[in-house]
Amino acid sequence: MQSFMNQYLGADDITYGRDDNAFSNSSIRHDDLSKNRRISGPDAKTPVKRKFRSRILKALILPAFGLALVASIDALPVAAEKFVTAATSVGQGDYQLAYEEWLPLANAGDVTAQYQLGTLYEAGRGVAQDYSEAAKWFMKAAEQGDGWAQHHLSMMYKNGRGVSRNEEQSVRWLKLAAEQGIAKSQHNLGVRFNDGQGVQRNESAAADWFERAAIQGLAKSQFNLGKIYQLGRGGRKLDLLKAYFWYDRAAAQNLPLAMVAVGNVHYFGAGVPVNKALAVEWYTKAAELGQAEGQFALAVNLSNGTGVQENDKLALHWLQVASNQGHVAAQYNLALQYGNGEGTAIDEALAVHWLWAAAKNNHAEAQFRLGRVYETGIGVLKNMIVAVRWYRQAAIQRHPDAIVRVSKDDIGDIESRDTTLNYSARQAEQFEITRQLTKDGDLEKAFRLMKSLAEGGYVPAEHMLGIFYLTGNGVTKNASEAITWLKVAIKQGFADAQYDFAMLSHEGTVIPQNYTDARTWLVEAAVQGKS
Fold it and tell me: What is the pLDDT of residue 69?
C-alpha cells in the first residue's frame, strides 16, 4: 500500500479551521447568559455598564442550581424578574416566553436583552427566523460594546445574512470582538489575516491571534498554532516540542485533525521518540470520530502491520470509509486493494471505479494507472483514446512514466483504427449485457458495468446510469448523481435523456418544478422522434 508520508501534516501549508460562529445553530446556552457574556481577555477594555448586571448574572444561572433559589431573592426589580423568567424559559425550551420577557428590556436599551433577541431571530426560536431583525438587534448591542453581539454581526456581514455582504464591516466588528477577548473572534481574525480576507495577508498577525485564542483553550487555534511551530511560520521559529504541546492540547479536546497530528508526531518521532503503536492509537481515535485522514493512516498501518497486527480486511474497511468521504489517497489505495485482492476477492470493476474517483481528483498515479487499464483492456473495454487522455492528464502533473507514454508520437496511431471502427460495437454489446443483467436481477453487477460504460463515454449508458441512481437499482438512490448523468447524456443530444429530464422538470419531485425546461426538452426529444 502507498505510504502516507505525503499526508504528513507538515508536508504542505498550514491547515486552518473555518470561521467559527458563536453558535452553530444560534442556540442559546445558559453559560452564554452568564460567564461567557462578560468582557474578558488580555486586552479587555473597561466593561460596558449594564443594567442590573451584578444581580442579574446570579439569577441567570438558576437552571443549573434549581428554581428553589428564586425564593431566596427578595424584592427583585421588575427587569431582573424578567431576566430570571427569560433564562428559566430558555432552559425549559419556551423561547416564545423568553422573547416576550426580553423584548421590552431590549426596547429600553438593555444590551444583554438586545443580544438575546438577536440570537432568537437568528435561529428562529420563539419567533419566525428573520436575519434582518437579528442583525438589527445585534447592531444595537454591538454598538453598546457587547463582544458576542459584535462577533455575530461580523459573521452576518461576512455571509450577507440580514445585511449586505461587506468584508470591511465584517473585519471591523471582528476586531472589536477579538480585542474584548472573544476566543472565536480571535480565531476568525487569525484566519482572515492568514488568508487575506478583508485585510492584508499577515502571517505574523495571524499567529498572534491564534495564540491568544489558543491560550483561552480554543481547540482549532491550538491546532493551528501547533502547525505554525511545526513549520516555523508566522514569525515563530520551528519548534517541534511546542508544536507537539499545542497539538496535544487540541487533541485532548477531541479535535480529530489534532489527533492525527499527534499520531504523526509519534509515528515520525518529530520532537518525541518514535512510537508507532501509540501513533496507531491516535489514528484510531480520529478514525472513529469520522476524520478521513485518520482513517487513511489507520488503514495504511493495518495493511503494513505497522504498530498494529496486520489486517487487510480491516484496512479495506477504513479505506472504504475514507474514500466515501473523498480522501483521494484512500481512493487510490482502495483501487489497489480491489485490484490485488487484498482483504477481499479481486474485483476489477471496483478497482477501476476507485481509480476513476482518484484520477478525477487529480491523483497522478491513479491517472497513469487508469491509462494503463484502458490501454490493456483490464476490467474495461480497451480504448486507446481514453488511455491517452489519462496519460496526458498524468503527464501534466509531471508523472515520469506518463511523460514517456505521451511522448511517443504513435501512441494513438497503433490501435486507433481498431478503436474507431470497433469500440462502439463493443460498447453496444456490453450495454446489452448490462440490460440483461438488470432483467435477471443482478443489479449490483449491472450497475458496475453500466458505470464503466458511462465513464468510457457511451451515451446510452450515461443516460441509464442516471436512471440507476434515480431508482436505486444496484446502488443507493442519489438524485444529485442521477441529474448529473442525465445532463451529461443531454449534452450529447440523447433523446431519451432529454425526455426523462423533461418529465422530472414537469413533476417537480426530484428537481424544482420548471415548466419552461419541461417544454424545451420535450421539443428537443420530439425533434428526434421521441414522443
Answer: 30
Grid cell locating 125:
426560536
CA distances, 348 to each of 271, 351, 417, 438 (Å): 43, 5, 26, 20
Nearest of 482, 419, 486, 429 to residue 453 by alpha carbon = 429
Q: Cα separation of 139 and 137, whole Å?
A: 5
Asked if 189 and 201 count as a contact pair (C-beta separation under 8 A), the reply is: no
44-61 residue pLDDT tens: 333 333 333 333 332 333
For residue range 421-446, what is the model confidence (pLDDT) as tens digits? 355 566 777 788 888 888 888 888 88
Q: What is the DSSP string of 65-99?
A: H-GGGGGG--S--HHHHHHHHHHHHHHTT-HHHHH
Report d(CA 494, CA 45) in Å as an integer: 67
Cβ-defined contacts of 280-284 (< 8 Å, 24+): 280/306, 280/307, 280/308, 282/251, 283/259
User: Could you tell me what percent of the chain has a pLDDT over 70?
Assistant: 78
What is the reported pTM?
Answer: 0.66
Q: Which residue has the higher pLDDT, 396 or 116?
A: 116
Q: What is the pLDDT of residue 205?
A: 96
H helix runs in 377-442, sequence order: 384-396, 400-407, 416-439
- The region, left, alpha or beta by phi > 0 then psi within -120 to 50, assigned to residue 145 is left
Look at residue 322 and give its three-state secondary structure: helix
Contact residues for 4 (Cβ-Cβ < 8 A; gap 6+): 296, 297, 300, 329
Residue with cell 444595537: 140
- Residue 243 sits at φ, ψ, to 5 deg, of -60, -50
Within 160-218, residue ranges assigned H as helices are 167-179, 183-195, 203-215
Count CA within 13 A, CB hemisphere, residue 502.
19
Handedness of CA 249, 253, 254, 257 (dihedral sign): negative
For 472, left (φ over 0), alpha (ψ -120 to 50), or beta?
A: left
Rg (the chain; Cα; Å) = 30
Contact 448, 349 (CB under 8 A): yes
Cell representation of residue 147? 463582544
Distance between CA atoms of residues 182 and 174, nearest Å? 9
Nearest CA among 93, 91, 89, 133 for reference residue 114: 133
For residue 397, CA distances in Å to 100, 288, 356, 370 come to: 62, 34, 16, 15
Residue 495 confidence class, pLDDT cut points 50, 70, 90:
confident
